[in-house]
Structure formats: C-alpha cells, structure tokens
Design a protein that fits this description.
- Helix content is about 60%, strand content about 0%.
- It has about 200 residues and is mainly alpha-helical.
- The protein has one domain: Hypothetical protein af1432 (Orthogonal Bundle).
- Helix 2 (about 20-40) crosses helix 10 (about 175-195) and helix 7 (about 105-110) packs across helix 8 (about 135-145).
Length: about 200
C-alpha cells in the first residue's frame, strides 16, 4: 500500500493501531485447528491442506475494513455501524482472492466461515448441509480461537470457559465437526499439560 493521500494515511494509521500480532496468531491458530479437525474427520490430505490455507486467509477481508472498524482508536465493543462493516469481511476476502488461483474449497470456506448451522449466520444465512464443509470447520475453529484470544474489549477465556460457551451455543455448529474439534483440542491440551 502506498501512502499517497490523507485517506490512505488514515487507513494505514488504523492498521498500525490494530494489534497485528494477535491477528496473525489468530489466523495461524485457526489454520492449525482446521487442518487437524479435517484430519480427525478423515478427510483426504488435499482437503486438509486447503483448509489450512483457508484458515490463514479467512480474515484477510478485515484488512480492507481497518478504517471502519479500527480507525478511531476506541477499543470499546463494536457499535452497530462497525458490526455492519465487520460482517462484510468474508465477502471482501472472497472477492479479493477470487482471481488469485485459490480452489473453490478455499474460497467458499472463507466466504461462508460466519454461517451458523442453525441458519443465523452471514453473509447468506445458509443452514445445515448447505454450508460448505470447509466453512463449517472454519466456523468452529474461528470461534474457539477468538474466545481464547485477548480482545481490546475482553481478556482471553481459559479452555474450559471457552469450551463451555461453545457448548452453550452448539446450535451454531455442525455436531460432527464440533465433536471432531473437541477431540483435537483435548488432545492438544493434554499434550501441553504433560509438557
């Protein structure tokens, strides 16, 4: 990005105020989780690898929205206007990546990673099996990673609290994906505790 105008400079300032290390950490955590959940579900290696790529790229649309969601430096929870823009990030990512040679699996996993299994998500309010499997996997991994990460408006949840919150909202997730995800997370946590 060249900073040639005041508008571009403001966008860059907003981007700099964003804790990019947390965004990278989130992207790679989602990527790792998605890969291992897909493996746990017995998906073929190529699909697992594609979901790993989708995990890294799933929030790239946020970079196009920094002026709208991070630009004022106020770290209070999102207001309605910010939520409207935030809900555009998966569609923006899809559009940005569409002609870059990524597979349909990667693109649709990114586009629909905020769809909820009960039909209450976005951008298309897809329900159940109409949501691509990759997006269903990313959804679970994305929620967990977000809960386990510090946010400007709240501290990271511990594993038990994050898992309980997800169980309380299990209607949002494909149950087969969620069960595979739980097995993966518990294996990782067990290994870390044995350290």
């Amino acid at each position: 990005m060249s900073v040639g105008t005041q508008e571009e400079a403001k966008s860059l300032d907003g981007f700099i105020s964003l804790d990019i290390s947390e965004e990278y950490k989130h992207a790679f955590q989602v990527s790792n989780l998605a890969y291992h959940v897909a493996k746990e579900m017995g998906l073929e290696d190529g699909i697992c690898s594609e979901l790993m790529v989708a995990g890294v790229l799933h929030d790239i649309g946020k970079l196009m929205l920094v002026d709208h969601i991070y630009g004022d430096g106020d770290h209070s929870p999102f207001i309605i206007e910010e939520l409207k823009y935030m809900r555009m990030h998966s569609t923006l990512a899809y559009g940005e990546l569409l002609d870059k040679g990524y597979s349909d699996t990667i693109l649709k996993s990114i586009l629909y990673h905020h769809e909820n299994y009960d039909g209450s998500g976005y951008p298309a309010n897809l329900r159940g099996e109409r949501i691509p499997l990759g997006a269903r996997i990313l959804r679970v991994c994305d929620v967990y990673s977000a809960l386990r990460s510090d946010r400007p408006y709240r501290k990271a949840r511990d594993m038990d609290t994050a898992m309980q919150q997800m169980i309380d909202e299990v209607r949002f997730f494909d149950m087969q994906v969620f069960l595979a995800f739980q097995r993966v997370v518990h294996k990782w946590e067990w290994r870390e505790s044995k350290g």
